[in-house]
Design goal:
With 131 residues, this protein is an alpha+beta fold. 22% of the residues lie in helices and 34% in strands.
């Protein structure tokens, strides 16, 4: 049998939609619709709550690498958290930059506040991890 060359379809990539379903994380259900800045805010929360490389359904570019930080010196920890948060969020093409990081430490937890500059405006967010 003679091999035949088959052309695969081209998959277009583009900007993620500015409108999405609103998730009530406490109740674990969809409760409405979000658009623009609110939708990006929810995408930020989902990206930071998803451990990178753990779930086969997501690409390796999606999620936050929260493992491997326990027991590290604070200077390294702060620098690495800044890099990992920025890397996780800038995968979304609606996010232009992540800036103004602020760190605090309470009872074995590191709290990180930051500013997310999006195409729709600016949001303030935070994450807390165990140290």
């Amino acid at each position: 049998m003679i091999p035949v060359q088959v052309e695969l379809p081209v998959i277009a990539t583009g900007t993620l939609p500015g409108r999405t379903f609103e998730i009530d994380f406490d109740a674990g259900r969809v409760v409405g619709v979000l658009d623009e800045l609110s939708a990006v805010g929810q995408a930020v929360r989902l990206a930071l709550a998803t451990e990178r490389y753990r779930h086969l359904i997501y690409s390796y570019a999606y999620g936050f690498e929260g493992t491997g930080l326990l027991g590290r010196p604070l200077s390294y920890l702060y620098m690495e958290l800044k890099r990992r948060i920025t890397e996780a969020l800038t995968q979304d093409d609606r996010i232009r930059d992540v800036t103004d990081f602020s760190f605090s430490r309470t009872r074995g937890r590191i709290h990180v506040s930051f500013r997310v500059e999006t195409v729709y405006g600016v949001l303030e967010d935070q994450i807390s991890i165990e140290n």
